[in-house]
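ingest -> validate -> predict -> emit
validate: passed (alphabet ok, no gaps, 507 aa)
predict: started
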Amino acid sequence: MPTITDHAKSHPTRPAFIMGSTGEVVTYAELDAAANQVSHLLRSRGLANGDHIAMMLKNCREFMEIMFGAMRAGVVFTPISTHLKRDETAYIIDNCRAKLFIASDSLADVAAEAAAQTPNLNHQFIIGKAAEGFDDWHDAVNAMSDEPIADQSLGVPMLYSSGTTGKPKGIFRAPDDESLDAPHPMKLVGAYYGFNEETVYLSPAPLYHAAPLYYNTLTLGLGGTSIIMERFDPEQALALIEKYKATHSQWVPIMFVRMLKLPEEARQRYDVSSMKRAIHAAAPCPIDVKHAMIKWWGPVICEYYSASEGVGFTLIDSEDWLNHEGSVGRPLIGVPKILDENMNELPPGEVGQIYFAEVNRFEYFDEPEKTEQAFDARGWGTIGDMGYLDEEGYLYLTDRKNFMIITGGVNVYPAEIEGLLVNHDKVADVAVFGIPNEEFGEEVKAVVQLMNHADASNEMAEDLLIWMRERLSSVKVPRSIDFMEQLPRMDNGKLYKRHLMDAYKAS
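emit:
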């Protein structure tokens, strides 16, 4: 695959990426030079091929420069969620064996506290305002040469699981080919979705997550242009599509929900006809939400199912989905298998744990037991999701195994209930999970974020319960509803459900 350097030589003034809020343009020539400076800085601080760095950064120009600099220095880089607290951040810095740590100035307090707990960390940098204990990133990198280092090799990301179901785990895959022009891990996916040098990719999610990271590196590897939003805003996303005539984008369902709940006038104000592929994943998308997006944007809505671990990959386009509502498609990589608790294959239509055969192994960094638990004796891999296959081999998700509620011996999948509730015109967001019940083992609890928190009341809770009883079997209807002004979602749209569950178990 061509490198950033190749594009810098062939079209140096073409925008590599543009920051959404400021309109700052970084050309391929500028990105190539900055990446060289980063790689020199890493070498100057003693980092060699295979060493690790950690970065806790908001979406910014420097994130991209550091990422590409690490990738040509053979350095393993770990982006850390900007929403983690001190102990969680310290755990990741320590666990990934980072020798160097870079943070945004707005995160300086957490970064400093976390760094103080990681004595093996050798170098700390801040981007922005000065912070005690941190060297200035710009001062250091600007002192470096913008020529290539002599010993370039391919560095890779090591991402950590979100921690939505437990302690974060580092997901490590050594590169099959250490040359800088090695095939991109998303080459097959990119070809399916039509990524090429003409692609204008809108990136609305945090860069520290797998999908935006890989789709951005894919876009730039092909010579296209990325439009990077500093943070997701539903109307700004529409405006950026129109302004830059974006051709591709990647979303999570809650982003669709928030765009759909904009006033009709705002939704119709922007021309989104340039969009060829609007790709979504990360969580099951409520059927009504997807129907609404296809009606609005046309048959450009595409879905895939995968994970940071890279265990399998399914996909489905709008036309196929309309004939298989709720499906996440058929496999592009791996062969899906549905297994019961005894590791036996289940027939079509029966829910079990999703495994994939014929996939490459990954490892959870420094956690061999957890790595082994992700694979069965046949080498089939799983991340713990639940679902089923239909007679045609289309895969359907039900929920995470960790989130399944067993009430009175009946399995209840929260995603189904959440998908219904979020379509209520008073509801902005919802989380459903199980809480202890002496008689039934667990009961269904819903925590709701209303469009207007001032509407929260016992009467509103009862109205929602009545509305659900008309649409769900009684066992699936929550026993009770609580209200929160803001649910704990990460910037990529994933719900930090574990935090809610832990709080209710402790109370």
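Residues 405 and 412 are 5 Å apart (CA to CA).
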